[in-house]
Amino acid sequence: MDWEVVIGLETHAQLATHSKIFSGAATAFGAAPNAQACAVDLALPGVLPVMNRTAVEYAIRFGLAAQVVIAKRSIFARKNYFYPDLPKGYQISQYEIPVVSGGQIVVELEGLEIPVRLTRAHLEADAGKSLHEDFHGLSGIDLNRAGTPLLEIVSAPDMRSAAEAVAYARTLHNLVMWLDICDGNMQEGSFRCDANVSVRPKGQQAYGTRCEIKNLNSFRFMEKAIEFEIRRQIALIESGGNVVQETRLYDPDRDETRSMRSKEDAQDYRYFPDPDLLPLCIDAAWIERVRNALPELPDAMRRRFVSDFGLSPYDASVLTASFDQAQYFQALMHFVQGVAKLCANWVSGELSAALHRDGLEIRHSRITPQQLGGLLRRIQDGTLSGKMAREIFDALWSDGGEADTLIESKGLKQISDVSTLEKIVEALMAAHPGQVAEYRAGKEKVFGFFVGLAMKACGGRAMPFLKTGWLANEALPFLGHSCSPAGSF
Amino acid sequence: MALTENDLRRLARLARIRVEDNEVGTLLTQLSGILGLIDQLQAVDTRGIEPLSHALDLEQRLRPDEVTEVDRREQFQAVAPQVEAGLYLVPKVIE
Amino acid sequence: MNLVTTSLKQLAEALRKRQVSSRELAQAYLERIVRLDPTLGAFITTDHERTLRQADAADSRIASGTAGPLTGIPVAHKDIFCTQGWLTTCGSKMLSNFVSPYDAHVIEQFKAAGALILGKTNMDEFAMGSSNETSFYGTVKNPWDLTRVPGGSSGGSAAAVAARLAPAATATDTGGSIRQPAALCGISGIKPTYGLVSRYGMIAYASSLDQGGVVAPSAEDLGIVLNTMVGFDARDSTSIQRPPEDYTALLEQPLRGLRIGLPKEFFSGGVSADVERAIEAALQEYERLGATRVDISLPNTALSVPVYYVLAPAEASSNLSRFDGVRFGWRAPRYDDLADMYELSRAQGFGPEVKRRILTGTYVLSRGYYDAYYLQAQRVRRLIVNDFKSAFAQCDVIMGPSTPTVAFGFGEKTGDPVQMYLSDIFTISVNLAGLPGLSIPAGFGQGGLPVGLQLIGDYFSEARLLNLAHRYQQATDWHSRVPALASA
After folding, report:
1. Looking at the domain assignment, is residue A291 inside a domain?
2. Looking at the structure, do residues A188 and A249 belong to the same domain, yes or no?
3. Mean pLDDT of all residues in B42-70
4. Fewer CB within 10 Å, N- or C-terminus of chain C?
């Protein structure tokens, strides 16, 4: 039987606020255990929550970017359950009326644009962490993370493969970082996905029973976990079994998902409006202020790169894979006009490789757009060959400075003066009369021998001239040779 | 609405309160009495009436995103039943 | 100085004129507590050394001329207010080991004013009760009759003031917990408009109904204390931002033209004859002062009790989930695993009434029942609010009895929770509407026990309510009557 896969994602993006969603404690990652858990985060008797304005603003920012409906009035609810990392015994979340609803994200996958609808996005407080090692059989509870603002973004079950799910997650990941509302650090848990996966016979309308895979903290694991889960469900059904709705955890070491200890009582979260909080009201003026401050979005920028710069859709999408990279590219384009493709190649090629090698973010690049622009201008005007340019790039990367100064000091300037080259070639021919004679007799291979010698003599600084057939078409004939095919170069 | 022992056990589990066998009878009687009281609400016609969460019609106040709290772990953990290395200790949490 | 007959206002004047020092005052009250409280059980904690240190600081402040109206005045606090360095129990075994690491906003306000913390008063466990019989720290006796309850949940505060063990005490009111014990103990008590007193650090029972307030012998003293207690607090999302108000400013205003609304539901049956007689006499006194009566109706009054017993337990069931034995409070000494630890800690730490309300609240919020109970109760709550809105179009203040009867005996209603709940019928609707309410002594009923007259005002009419009470107290002396025990 042919199976269709149905995937929906629930994504928790930690909002990059300084303080927590309902308290003034810091949200910085990596503090000593419980050093950033204040009275409110610890749920001491009598404490109360007060909402962080910036968290709301970030939700609005996301909402505008994903073309959602922003609720003028939304409600915070309590989701009640007991867990040691949940100090109040309830999570403050949004239930019936979330801050944003609807909207969609356009995902690019293998040249296709796939729209993924969003169901909703709501604000909520993160829980703390349970640590299971080293406490003589007990668990240790660290509540530093408790109360960190989360935007939970829920997609419709619109994805039909693990690859689509990952592409959606990457797009979302890029978007929240683009909007500067989430640092996107998946290792630190700033961006976490749960995937709802089900399968159904192709053509069937009704959804199959779904399983939720929790805490997929890298795109690679997400893909593998979903693929495993699809295989598992299909195998189960084909062998006459039934998928049981449950929560499963992906184990990367064994590359499999396994059932989490089923919650002992059927989940009954007893949601009700949090009486400590009043309705969250967002007026049109606030939304407009946020809208006006919104950066150009990746989708729009990608299209613009194609239409304005003549880049291929592929290049445009590589460049807009992150806000910082796109910004770098745009800055670079201020310094070198008219060679977008060259710029794109250098940003996604040399620069990316160097950043990757040194483990740097592009915003911390050791070469500024201005420096790189200076270098690329010299490629553009023929001063530098690609090889020379890479040499200068490496020098700029390690020692800084300006391309032009380095070109001078290293004597790397391309020989662009024809008479100098002619003299070099003349001398070579004089020194190798035998080979000249062979060439004249029609032995074309000898031509390569001259190119090699000429390049050596120029220290690699005349590459484009030599390569473009100048030697064959102009230098050698000028020296009394009848024309020979230049195609051999 | 008659409350059964099963209902009571389910509620007690949700509320994480151990109810001993010898408490069940009294609790059932008392809770059934309370449910009888609140069941009076079922007879009220509230069509078209919006639920009211707060008497005063106010909006949520928003605070600026500023870190105002300092590390007071020592004082907070002075009242904790069991701590070690800055962590609150509990019986093993099973995922 | 006779603490039994001297009002808080007079004590403040005596301090300012240096006729008495704060230390002397504190010592005198502490001495009364040592002598009389073993009989009453009004206090859970006192700390003489700490109180006297505060008194010394107040004395220097008075000497330096920077004293405010409450500087040097000892005030008792209901043990629901978190008080840094003080045991703060909320009347529960659950918090029997909880020394608060922080101060409630209310406590901060009193500290800033230079008032002394005289001690922490007994209360129904987590403010759930109408008789102070649910406290882990034992019952509080009514100073007028030691076989009777003082009312609840602020029974300790009310009994302490009634016996003049404190010139004033803080209290809280979720369904009548200030007005009912004030009435049963023969003192004055005010529950302000919801949102005027910060709930930060006031251990939550039912967040949308809880409100801090004061009990004191007279309305004038209530106003003085309220001036310190009320204040905007950014840490409470429901705290109301308004310009500061002097709650004593209108005290002397004449009552001519006052329209008193009398809801027929407060007077038709259910009220005992002695209470009804006392209230009628009080109303006649108001007429002599220039007021007129207006018959009004609050048709949904009877529903306020069921509405309350859906909403308050629902909020409580969630508010009390934080007591899980992990970060503070009671943890069972023996348990097998995590679930066991939760269930035993909570079963041991909470008393029967708290458990009943948590279970009730869990029930009304649980799947399949939420709409029928919780949402329906919220809808009826709106009907109740609307009743008050219509009423205040016809009158300036609503009056009636604070309680259906005078103080009842211990154990009289503990067997049947519903009977206990019904005793709050006149006070509960005021919390549901978030309105200010006041109870003042209005004579005596059966057994020489006090009767309370309830005054309900429109939102933010506290100063006016205190004015109405004060003019009445100038014309009568019920508020200065004290139980025999106090003069002993």
Report:
1. no
2. yes
3. 95
4. C
Kindly report, residue by residue over A416-470, the tens digit of the pLDDT: 666 777 777 778 878 888 888 887 777 777 777 777 777 777 766 655 555 555 5
Fill in the DSSP letter of residue B41.
G
Dist. CA C319–CA C203, nearest whole Å: 9
Task: For residues A85 and A187, state if they share a domain.
Answer: yes
A160, A6 Cβ separation under 8 angstroms? yes
Q: Is B60 left (phi over 0), alpha (psi -120 to 50) or beta?
A: beta
Q: Which residues of B touch A268 (CB under 8 A)?
A: 14
Window 71-90 of B, Cβ < 8 Å to A: 71-73, 76-77, 82, 84-90
Distance CA C439, CA C452 (A): 6
Sheet strand arrangement including C450-456: C43-45, C116-121, C74-78, C169-173, C211-216, C188-191, C437-444, C450-456, C397-401, C259-263, C292-296
Residue with the two structure tokens 């230098």 = A475
Chain B residues within an 8 Å CB radius of C82:
none
**In this predicted model, what pLDDT tens digit does every residue of A79-132 receive, in sequence order?**
999 999 999 999 999 998 899 999 999 998 887 889 999 999 999 999 999 988
Contact criterion met (CB below 8 Å) for A45 and C95: yes
Looking at the structure, tell me whether residues A440 and A371 fall in a common domain. Answer: no
Is the domain of A253 the same as that of A342? no
Q: Which residues contact C56 (CB under 8 A, 6 or more apart)?
A: C22, C23
Residues C279 and C401: beta-carbon distance below 8 Å: yes
Report how far residue A424's alpha carbon sits from residue A346's, in angstroms, rounded to the nearest whole number. 33
Question: How far, in Å, CA of A183 to CA of A189, rounded?
Answer: 10
Report the domain count for chain A: 3
- Domain edges within chain C: 8-257+480-487
Interface size, chain A vs chain C, as Cβ–Cβ contacts under 8 Å: 100
Tokens describing residue C121: 């008063």
The reported pLDDT for the residue numbered A264 is 44
Domain span including residue A462 = 418-488
The answer to whether residues A358 and A425 belong to one domain is no
pLDDT at A1: 79
Residues A263 and A311 in one domain: no
Residues of chain A below pLDDT 50: 264-265, 478, 480-489
Q: What is the DSSP letter of A460?
A: T
> Which of A286, A321, A343 lies at the terminal end of a domain, its last residue?
A286
- Tell me the β-bridge partners of C15: none
At position C218, the amino acid (one-letter code) is S
Inspect the interface and report whether the beta carbons of B52 and C381 lie closer than 8 Å.
yes
C8-257+480-487: CATH architecture: Alpha-Beta Complex (3.90)
Q: Exposed, middle or buried: residue A263 (CB in 10 Å: 0-12, 13-18, 19+)?
A: exposed
Provide the sign of the torsion angle of the four alpha carbons A195, A199, A205, A209, taken in this order.
Answer: negative
**ipTM surpasses cut 0.90:** yes
Q: Which of A88, A41, B19 is nearest to C320 (CA)?
A: A88
- Six-digit token pair at A311? 């880049």
Cβ-based contacts of A276 with chain C (< 8 Å): 204, 207, 237-238
The reply to whether A347 and A471 lie within a common domain is: no
Taking residues C337-359, report their average pLDDT. Answer: 97
Which of the residues A75, A92, A135, A276 would you substitute to probe the C interface, choosing the one with the greatest number of C C-beta atoms within 10 Å? A276
Nearest to A76, CA basis, from A90, A64, A57, A65:
A90
pTM of the model: 0.90
Asked if A47 is an interface residue toward chain C (Cβ–Cβ < 8 A), one would say: yes
Kindly identify which residue of chain A lies nearest to residue C363, measuring between CA atoms.
A270
The rounded radius of gyration (Å) of the Cα atoms in chain C is 21
Q: Which of C7, C9, C78, C345 is catalytic?
A: C78
Q: Which residue among C102, C365, C370 places its CB closest to the CB of A39?
A: C102
Q: What are phi and psi for residue A191, nearest 5 degrees? A: -140, 110
